[in-house]
Specification:
Largest sheet: none
Structural class: mainly alpha
Strand content: under 5%
Number of helices: 2
């Protein structure tokens, strides 16, 4: 007696498996898309906060520059009293 292997495919079970697989794939894809959108939104918010910090730093720098322009001028005092200027002093003038 020989042994044979006959595969019997039930079309109803096959159709049910395809439908369940499609539903699971749709749900998993939807979850990945929602996660990606959430991550993009978070990164955009972080980027905007970074730009805000940069703009605030630039505004503070400009205010500091304006304040330095209005400061009292400092007159340098020469230590050597012989009246001869050194080469370094000549270059700075």
């Amino acid at each position: 007696m020989s042994f044979t292997f006959d595969v019997i495919v039930n079309p109803i079970i096959l159709l049910a498996g395809v439908i369940v697989g499609a539903i699971i794939g749709f749900v998993v894809g939807k979850a990945k898309l929602a996660k990606a959108k959430s991550r993009i939104s978070k990164l955009e918010t972080e980027l905007l906060n970074s730009h805000t910090e940069t703009l605030e730093a630039q505004q503070a720098y400009v205010a500091l520059e304006r304040h330095q322009d209005q400061s009292i001028p400092v007159i340098s005092m020469k230590i050597n009293g012989n009246g001869k200027e050194t080469a370094k002093e000549k270059l700075s003038k």
